[in-house]
Specification:
Distance between the termini: 37 Å
Oligomer: single chain
Order of helices and strands: HEEEEHEEHEEHHHEEHEHHHEHHEEEEE
Number of helices: 12
Number of domains: 2
Shape: globular
Helix content: 25-40%
């Protein structure tokens, strides 16, 4: 008697249907116009910096490259940092058909099985992507990093840039962490090894200073479905921490902070990215007590940062569990509008008082808005957005970002349900990630899967570590059901 085969699950259809269910337009409309070829670098009023040794570090498969970097050692010990951001606005004028569609979705959605780009791929993976070997328009954020890691914003300006090497997190991370020799993407470009090592030194300075200010160093495990050439999910890949990811993270945090500082210095109304003081702080204090540690009764980012570092050293195997609990209790960030002279919350987790999103305009609409506000300022043009319009955009971006998280979470569950369908009855260590009217949710860290606790869920709390048994999976719906033991 032949074995009965499981029905084929069309994950691409599930992804598209999930996008529609969350209010996204997953297809680039036919009404989106063709690219205006008159908007070329020849007509750009920009500094020519193509001879500088620009390079990028991103995921190995990424083609929507938003940033390139260049650093220069100065005699006083300061490292000059230039971060070039793709000038998307040059090809996506406000009010154009492309802009209207981008605003509807406000973000690219990365499901793991397929990417739904915010912009036409003719732009995001070509004309506005800072591809290796190509001349591109960019907005450059220039800041200086002192030996103690303090940052001084110097300038923001338009430029022509040339990416001499598109490098990957995994390969460059292994090299910077002394796990491999210099890879070909470094060694084939004269002087690039010295350039990247100087970038790494600047990043280490920035990280040390951020740590002193109380920035949280968390380790969250995010799984991405691995697809074979038949479109089947065969594994879940986990992005590992390494020196290359740390380098880019520190550069981008400093760049976004410098951009916000530039807006303040010019008296410009702008959109800010904030993570407010957590309302769930008492539960974080409880978790610390459960781990035989203490936190103050009132929110203190320095104390939380120190607590996390102690736990990282004391129990590295479970630090990802603790990080996940803290992330859930801190809550997501949101966009707000800040007017000149007005004070808004900073970014609690990053321990910065000024922060905006500016470094990913191919992928996030908020960054494109920031870019237009900046260009209007440095070029002396009229203000492109009124305050009420900015507030409406910020609210829409917040709503769409929340929806995007739901899509991505659903598709991670679909992938996990497919991989776990033959492990019914197995037991795992898990952490409670949500207690809502809709149900109680938990995440297994190894393998990284999320599901609902449908048995034994009474009195469970966010951040609590529990033991669960896998009861059932429904891949087409992305359902994974656990029992708490």
């Amino acid at each position: 008697m032949s074995e009965k085969k499981s029905p084929h699950i069309d994950v691409l259809k599930i992804a598209r249907d999930t996008m529609l269910a969350e209010g996204f337009d997953p297809d680039m409309p036919a009404t989106v116009g063709t690219i205006d070829e008159s908007l070329t670098i020849k007509n750009a009023n920009a500094r020519d910096l193509r001879k500088l040794l620009w390079s990028s570090i991103d995921n190995a498969t990424s083609r929507d490259l938003d940033q390139v970097e260049f650093v220069e050692q100065q005699p006083d010990g300061i490292i000059r940092v230039l971060v070039g951001i793709a000038d998307v606005d040059a090809f996506v004028p406000k009010g154009s058909s492309i802009d209207v569609h981008a605003f509807e979705n406000t973000t690219s959605v990365y499901t793991g099985v397929v990417t739904f780009p915010m912009l036409p791929e003719e732009l995001s993976t070509d004309k506005t992507s800072l591809l290796e070997g190509e001349d591109r328009l960019a907005l450059v954020i220039e800041y200086a990093v002192a030996p103690d890691g303090s940052v001084t914003t110097r300038d923001v300006f338009r430029a022509l840039v040339h990416n001499y090497s598109k490098m990957s997190y995994e390969v460059i991370g292994n090299w910077l962490d002394s796990k491999a020799t210099a890879p070909d993407e470094v060694s084939r470009v004269p002087q690039l090894e010295q350039q990247v090592r100087l970038q790494f030194e600047a990043a280490q300075r920035l990280r040390k200073a951020r740590r002193a200010q109380g920035a949280l160093r968390l380790r969250t495990i995010q799984a991405t479905p691995v697809i074979d050439n038949l479109g089947e999910i065969v594994d879940l890949a986990i992005d590992e921490e390494n020196g290359a990811r740390d380098l880019i993270e520190n550069f981008m945090v400093a760049a976004n902070g410098s951009m916000a500082e530039f807006f303040d210095s010019k008296g410009i109304t702008s959109m800010r990215r904030v993570v407010s003081t957590p309302e769930n702080w008492p539960r974080i204090v409880e978790i610390a007590k459960e781990l035989h540690d203490t936190l103050p009764e009132t929110p203190d980012v320095h104390a939380l940062s120190d607590f996390l570092e102690r736990q990282r050293k004391a129990d590295p195997d479970h630090f990802a569990d603790l990080s996940l609990a803290v992330v859930k209790l801190l809550g997501p960030g949101e966009y707000v509008v800040q007017q000149p002279g007005e004070t808004v919350d900073g970014h609690f987790g990053l321990a910065v008082h000024r922060y905006t999103h500016s470094t990913a305009p191919n992928r996030r609409y908020a960054d494109l808005i920031t870019q237009r506000l900046l260009k209007a300022s440095i070029m002396g043009d009229g203000v492109p957005y009124g305050i009420d319009e900015l507030k409406q955009i910020a609210q829409h971006c917040n709503e769409r970002e929340s929806a995007a998280r739901k899509v991505e979470r659903k598709m991670r569950k679909v992938a996990a349900a497919l991989l776990m369908k033959n492990r019914i009855g197995d037991q795992f260590n898990a952490i409670v990630t949500g207690v809502t009217p809709k149900g109680t949710f938990a995440r297994v860290v190894k393998p990284p899967i999320d599901g609902m606790v449908v048995r034994g869920e009474k009195d469970l709390r966010v951040g609590q570590q529990i033991r669960v048994q896998l009861l059932s999976t429904n891949p087409s719906q992305g359902y994974i059901d656990f029992a708490a033991l």
